[in-house]
Amino acid sequence: MYLFCRVGQSAGHSKTSTIQQVIVNVYLDSIGCRLNQSEIETLAAQFRSAGHTLVENSADADMVVLNTCSVTKAADADSRKKVRQAARAGNEQIVVTGCWATLDPESAASLPGVVQVVSNAEKEHLAARVLNMPPGHFTAQRAAPKPRRALPGSQARTRVFIKAQDGCDNHCTYCVTRIVRGAARSRPLNEVLEDIQSARLGGAQEVVLTGVHLASWGQDFGSGTNLGQLVEAVLAASDVPRLRLSSLESWDLDESFFSLWQDARLCRQLHLPLQSASGAVLQRMGRRTTPQAYAALVRDARAAIPEMAVTTDIIVGFPGESTAEHQESLDFVKEIGFAGGHVFSYSPRPGTPAAQMLDDVPKAVKKERSAQMRALLAESERRFQEQFRGRVLPVLWESTAKVEDGTWQLKGLSDNYLRVRAAAAENLWNQISQVRIRQVKGRDLMGEIVNQ
């Protein structure tokens, strides 16, 4: 099957306006957040519905679509690296989209093999554009949900990320996402439910609601609509065995929110970005919380939901961060006892207020502070893991590998986001097993299946 597509005509960043003939094997890849992963699954469904084949790697593709990230300088570099890798694999039809492509379209267009740069604002119509279809073609074609098919190769996921929201109205001074994603926008409930139905028809055991500012879902609808109502509707309208929520801002939640966990299908994990536990740094960051309010919310969550995993994000080396302020964060993280977290060294992002501040924390100091925070979070994570030794946990198997003796080595996640390994006599990919935890090994829990 062949496709005729007009290349290089997006947002004024064109290399050519010729019509090129390409074979329709498409490779999709994503850098960064779960929202990006959700978006390439949507693109996958659109390309497949138009009759095209998705392949496992860029070397086998006639077209590569990369959904990029720009949350840090490292993410920018990863995005450029992915484009160059695709070009070195011989691909001359590369379409670049996502946050880095939106932030720096000229740089994206200048890379070898890139024929189109599609901004986040136009991403919804990307597949239609490169297939020479009307912009609203796939929206107009929405019908009864079709079974979701996992992406091939390393992009395959058992858990399905469902985009419920995009954009953000917060004004965190370091964050470029609001600039490249725009104002907060909620997807209609019926579309979210249709995507979840498609996931279930495809055999998904867990869906993850995701967005840039997920907790703001419904606020742009008016009439008091909120995230809690979305969660209740999903649980009422679907039979999904596990529902997980992606990152939530602590100031959007209150004690009443945790009553949703009376339904055991809601996974016992909250990812609550902290960024800093210094009140002064939080003010400079434009964060709408205090360490005291954050700690109170965590206490409420743990009181309402036993064995809830609370994970977080921390930025070290923010402009003006003193040794004492960094120590405040270390002390707070130790006190809270997170189940895990991500640590980022501050890097200025173009167009953000923080980029105008004096970046006065030397790189060597940032590196040292990052190592200290990572070590503290690793210790906290291990303490959380240890309490489950000898316990039985439900685990969804995300990856499996057959070994020489004919058994299968399985890796998966518990509902409270613990990484678990076990052996089985058969391939249990995308199935949920009850697993008795025997030991903690590195960042994984080693166990044995008790319900085979």
Task: Report on the architecture of this protein.
By secondary structure, the chain is an alpha/beta fold. It folds into 3 domains: 2-140, Rossmann fold (3-Layer(aba) Sandwich); 159-386, tm_1862 like domain (pyruvate-formate lyase- activating enzyme, Alpha-Beta Horseshoe), CATH 3.80.30.20; 392-449, no CATH class. Helices cover 31% and strands 24% of the residues. The protein is built from 13 helices and 20 strands. The strands form 6 sheets. A 5-stranded parallel sheet has the order 4-3-5-6-7, with helices on both faces. The chain has a 5-stranded mixed barrel with strand order 16-17-18-20-19. Helix 9 links the parallel strand 11 and strand 12. It is globular. The model is unreliable at 1-21 (pLDDT under 50).
Class from helix and strand fractions: alpha/beta
CATH homologous superfamily of the largest domain - what is it? Answer: tm_1862 like domain
Mean pLDDT: 92
Whole-number total of structural domains = 3
Order of neighbouring strands in the sheet with most strands: 4-3-5-6-7
Rounded to the nearest angstrom, the radius of gyration is 22 Å
Give me the CATH fold name of the largest domain.
Answer: pyruvate-formate lyase- activating enzyme
How many β-strand stretches?
20
Range of strand content:
15-25%
The helix fraction, in percent, is 25-40%
